[in-house]
Structure formats: structure tokens, C-alpha cells
Model the fold of this input.
Amino acid sequence: MKYIKYLVFTVTAFLMSCTADEFLNPIPDTVVVEESFFQTDADVEASVLGIYDALQGVNENSGTNIGNFNRGVQFEHLLTEHRTDNTRNATLEGSKSDFHRYVVDANNVESEDYYASMYEAIFRANNTLRFIDIADESNRARYTAEAKFLRAYAYFKLVRLFSDVPLVTAVAGPEDNETLFTRIPEEQIYAQIVEDLQEAISVLDNTYKARASRAAAQGILAKVYMTQPNPNYSGAEQLCEAIISSGEFALENNFTDVFYNELNDEIIFAIQYQFGNTLESQSFSSEFTSFSRQGREDGQNIVNDNLVADFSAFGGVRGGQSFINLGSSIEVIKFLPEGSDITVSPPTYGENARNAGNDYIALRYADVLLMHVEATIGSGTSTSDIGAIQSFQQIRDRAFPATAPNAISSISKNELLTERRVELAFENQRWFDLLRFGVANDVLSAHAVEMGYVYSPRDLLLPIPAREINLSDGLLTQNPGY
Done:
């Protein structure tokens, strides 16, 4: 979804307008705007699509090194999956290996890039809203809702990883340090996220899967409700039930089809990539493989033994469709690049693994069904609610088709957390699940002891990037312990 017209304009304006100091700051490149660019409804829609482009990010394989082209969600597995008991890097070399060992510092380039990428999306959303009146009247509400959904989506990522962050809801100039660098309490961040998502729900329909939709906003808001400091479990339950009762989504019969029959019935929201197109592709699929010779640092998302054990006990058919034991390593196969062949030794990963086209799945129906169970349990420890049982059983029946229908009479919170682990492994959900279930510190402490890592509660938050603090002249403060 690279809209070159929008990108060329943004980059040109940025390069012509920034001082040397500003060039180091990811903030100005979305606030430097030619008023003359926005002339028609099509221009405003191109601006909306440019927000998705920021989330998609630029492939590391593109060779692009002009300006600050962020990698979007392509580094997200490092900041999430690697910091859990699910996966790790195959080597100890480079900054990408810092996450699984809990040694990330404020100068980590991948963490910094992710922070900047989410703000890139936020500021593009704000810029779109600035010119919304240029759009055709019939489209203004939809474009507004779409921009606000994407802004909320980015802020939801940031607040869970970094806690209090600057809250910017309108275009700010590069000298407006109070707005750009003042950390705002989590509660206010969540209030803005909720407001934006509620507007998206009231305006959008379910036309798209690769763009914002009502169901995507409902699903994300359900997760927000259960994550915020004062959880709203009943609100989350209602939102999940609205998606379920819509009849517009269903589990794929074949678990593998979820990932290789893209934008299928199970997908609610995905960030799209295109195979073979350097500007539209992604490189994270190649980095998951330890035998690929086309990745820069081969062997990310190497599967930990305790996850393999959970797959063996609770995964059913999902194990063989999620990872493979290659003898010297156990690695992810959910997102194999096009043309991969894992039946040979060593396996091959397509003609150009670093230009993979596998979509990033942001939300799928299985997640919603399991959230429905979670919301029903609420602050309790288990549920026997019939609706929750039905949601859970759909997931279990697909995983264990030989014994379906699987008789389930109740579901404990621990059982649900394990089910989410094996169903959504390698989809960057485990970190957020551990936080939401309130068990992150206990699980990660035990994991660190098992693996020989040094973990402390400070690691529940990532450090605010040092570059941002330096640019703020000390206005932006650091998280405790860094």
C-alpha cells in the first residue's frame, strides 16, 4: 500500500525544510506540509492511506537510507514476542539480540525505530485531520474515523510498551516542545484511545480487512477495555459479542489457511505486504529463519522449549503448522516467505526471502473469540458461561478435529492464557497477554531463571529512546531503572 505520490511529497518537503537538528527528529517530517498538495478528495484519501504506509514501514532490504524511513511493525516481534517465554534470537550479536535477554537500553535502534514509527502514523493521522474539510462532504466522516482509528491503534501500542508518552492530537510545529515531549499519564492516553475507537465504531462498516473497519475498532476497543488501568470487562464482552453476532467472520477450517489464504474470513484487520516489490514487501519473515542466507541476522523467533511443550500438550494440529524442528533449531513456519521448501535439508526460503509478502495480522476472529472468554471471566478465575464455552470450543475443535466436539464445561484463566499462547504464538500477542492477565512479572522471572537471563520488574517497560530525550532538552523523562 505504498502511495508514491504521498511519499515523494512528504520526503521532499521534509528534506527541504529541516535543519540539521530537526533531521534527527522523527517528528517534523509529518508536520511539514505543502498546503497546495491537498486539493481534492483523492488527495485526502491518499493522506489516509499514507497512515497505513507508516505502519507498514520500509523494508530493511530496500536500501533506502535517506531521511528517517521507519520500519513500522516489522520490528514488533523483537519488542513483544522476544521479551516473553515464547521465542529468542539465535545469536547474541547485534542490538536485535538485546530484547530476549532483557538488556535493552535507551540507545537500542530497533526500540527507537518502533517508537518513531508509531509517532509517524500518529502525526500522519493528525495531518490528515487537519485537511479533512477538503474531502467530499460524503467522505469526511469516514476519513476522519479511519484516521482516528489508526491514531488509536498506534497509541495503544505505545502506551503498553512505554507507559506515559506524549499525547499529540493535532499538528504541532517542530518548536512546540511542550506538546511534542511532555509525557501524559496513561489514563489520559487510554481516554483518547477509547474516544477515537468509539467514533470509528459509530461511522465505519466492515467493507475492508486491510483498512479500518467497525469490527476492527470493536475488537481493538475490547482489548483496550481489558487493558486499561480500570478494566471494563462488560464493555469488552459486549463488543466481542457484537462481532460474533454479526456473522461476518468465521474461523478457517484449516489453520494454515489463516496465514496463507490472505484476507480470509478469519481476518478482521491486516497490514498488507506484496511479494517481490521492495517498496511493498517485508523482511521479517526471512529473519525468522535460521538457515536463510538472505537475512541480515538469521534466526529470530527461535522457539523456546517451554512453548514447544505447551504445543505438545495443548496445541493439537497447530503445532505442526506453527513451527518446525530442524534439528539444530526450532523455528517459526507461520510466515514462511513465498516459495519456501522446508521438506529439504537445509530448507530453502524462496527466490528472495527478504522481499516477502506475508501480511501482518493485527486482529483475527480467533483472538476475538478468546477475548470473549476473557471478558466473561473478568476479574474472576474461571467461567462456565454458555456463550464463553461456545467461543472457546470453536477454537479447541479446530485444534483437535479428531475429538470434536470437545466437551468443555468450564474454562479457567490459566487455561485461557495457555490457549491464547498456542493459538496466537508468533503473532506478537504473548507480551500483551501476560501484562493484561497480571502475570507478566511472575512468568518472566521464572523464564529468566530457566534461561540464565537477568530480569527485573523495570523490564516490563521499554526505555524512552535517548535520542528523543536529547532532542527535548530534558523535557522528556526516562522510565524508572534506565
Q: What stands out?
A: The chain is about 45% helix and 5% strand. The chain has a mean pLDDT of 90. The longest strand covers residues 267-271. The CA atoms of residues 177 and 473 lie 9 Å apart.
